[in-house]
């Protein structure tokens, strides 16, 4: 049973528009959520995170929203740029197993110039 | 700072051979982990370590051994390679095992024939 799901394998948006990447989770013990970005032939790099005590966290063009009742989080990128084209992974962990992140399968974002 | 360094970047093995994937970090991080990523899937945790001398199993530990004799190094050993272990392997580290982002190496692409 996959505990972190990214149901959209790919997303294509026009440069300058908003990109919205979605992630659902099933484990109610998860209390910390992260987004990583991955370019080909490189390791994932941390993008933004959110604790379960918050419902929104913003860092420049990137905003993560958390809806605990729906067990859903989303990453908004505004405005999208061609350099944002990458695979985005959602990850989650809980206080008991802190550090042992569970990853989704990723969403490939393509931003067209 | 080099961050997390993985060697080799590529390796081809025959079924039954053994090898060690190297991982080193220069950030004095206590927590280190190994993940594997199969095509179209997210990262799955193989083994992790919360400090020198301490290791534990992750989600998919079978066929792999680890040790942590120093803070800096966390090698992953394949005891008898099988085609099912063909994957990209990522090593990661973080300051400790609390909820925080991990720093990833660029991966080792391993093919088992």
Task: Sum this structure up briefly.
The complex is a heterodimer of chains A (113) and B (113). Chain A has 113 residues and is mostly beta strands. Chain A has no helices and 11 strands.
Describe the structure.
The complex is a heterodimer of chains A (113) and B (113). Chain A is mostly beta strands and 113 residues long. Chain A has no helices and eleven strands. In chain A, strand 9 and strand 10 form a beta hairpin. The termini of chain A are far apart. The mean pLDDT of chain A is 94. Chain B is mostly beta strands and 113 residues long. In chain B, strands 2, 4, 5, 6, 9, 10 and 11 form a seven-stranded mixed β-sheet that branches. Chain B has a four-stranded antiparallel β-sheet with strand order 1-3-8-7, with no helix packed on it. In chain B, a hairpin with a 5-residue loop joins strand 4 (31-37) and strand 5 (43-51). Chains A and B meet through strand 4, strand 5, strand 9 and strand 10 of A and strand 4, strand 5, strand 9 and strand 10 of B.
List the helices and strands and how they pair.
The complex is a heterodimer of chains A (113) and B (113).
Chain A: E1 4-5, E2 10-14, E3 19-25, E4 32-38, E5 45-51, E6 56-59, E7 62-67, E8 72-77, E9 86-93, E10 102-103, E11 107-112
Parallel strand pairs in A: 2-11
Antiparallel strand pairs in A: 1-3, 3-8, 4-5, 4-9, 6-7, 7-8, 9-10, 9-11
Chain B: E1 4-7, E2 10-13, E3 19-25, E4 31-37, E5 43-51, E6 54-57, E7 64-66, E8 76-78, E9 87-94, E10 103-104, E11 108-112
Parallel strand pairs in B: 2-11
Antiparallel strand pairs in B: 1-3, 3-8, 4-5, 4-9, 5-6, 7-8, 9-10, 9-11
